[in-house]
Amino acid sequence: MCLTRWVRGQGVTSTLLEQVESDGSNLRTIARLEGLRLRCPRWSPDGQYIALVKDVVAGNVFSPVVLVKVSTGEARQLNPKERGGYLSSPAWLEDSSVVAIQATSPEAPNIITPARVLVFDVRTEECRTVAALPHDAPVCDLRNGKLVYEARSRRGNLVEVRLGTRPTTCPDAGPGPGTSIDRQPRYTPDGKGLVFTSNPNDSRQWTPPPPHRPRSGNRGAPAAARAAGRRRLAPAPRTQPYHLTAKRSSR
Fold first, then answer.
1. Which of 131, 139, 191, 238 is exposed most, by the fewest CB atoms within 10 A?
2. Range of 83's domain?
3. Considering just the CA atoms, what is the radius of gyration of the chain in Å?
4. Is residue 221 assigned to a domain?
């Protein structure tokens, strides 16, 4: 697995991109990225590259995806075409493209702002917009054409949409009623489930509004099914309010 550490020297913060075995052995440094505070490293499916993004701060007008070649440590940047705010965690679309969500305003995350889903071509370094979202998101994941993201919205933290071949505007739809603060979603390898952190008892976070009651039909059934499909993976110690949760993907 890979991880990042921020180190500071001579007044400059840099990022160490490191690789380690799952048991904690064989730690090695892949690259030292000077003057950059990077987060959310994601392996490419073929294991040749790791994609990262800058730390979430306001004022990132052209926040890039940083691409590191594992064998050499060589780094290059994939830049958005449009001005905007921070980028979400990257996700890989096969071996040749990286997906990230870009806030439309440089003032994010100080404010909640609409966002766009970007696809970066690793080979040509071109960037295109494939979807518009009603709110920005710090974390996303992609599997089998489905995008799940941690929405900064009062309606619910986790939103799942299906990306098509044409640009689309995604609805403002959350995971359904409840009081959990669900974050950091990742798909299981087969794409049939989600693993995420959840905090159902922290009163310091916002409280979602009352659940929407559909006028007719059973429009609320998918949300209810998703809420019922959760199962807890590990108990949460009192000193750590977040715990791992899993549920089946809705699509």
1. 238
2. 2-210+227-248
3. 19
4. no
- Whole-number pLDDT of residue 237: 44
Q: Do 55 and 106 meet the contact criterion of CB atoms below 8 Å apart?
A: no
Distances in Å between the alpha carbon of 38 and those of 30, 198, 220, 233? Answer: 14, 24, 39, 29
Count of domains observed in the chain: 1
In a domain, 166, yes or no: yes
Please report which helix (H) or strand (E) contains residue 133, including its range: strand 127-133
Question: Comparing C-alpha atoms, which of 74, 56, 53, 51 is closest to residue 64?
Answer: 53
pLDDT of 24-46, one tens digit each?
A: 899 999 999 999 999 999 999 99
Question: What separation in angstroms does the CA of 239 have from each of 201, 235, 242?
Answer: 13, 12, 9
Q: Residue 45: how many CB atoms within 10 A of its CB?
A: 11
The tens digit of pLDDT for each residue in 50-69 reads: 999 988 777 767 789 999 99
The CATH number assigned to the domain holding 234 equals 2.120.10.30
Half-sphere exposure of 160 (CA within 13 A, CB side): 24
By C-alpha distance, which of 135, 206, 215 is closest to 173?
Answer: 135
DSSP for 178-235, please give it.
-S-EEEEEEE-TTSSEEEEEEESS-TTS--PPPPP--SSTTTTHHHHHHHHT-EESSP
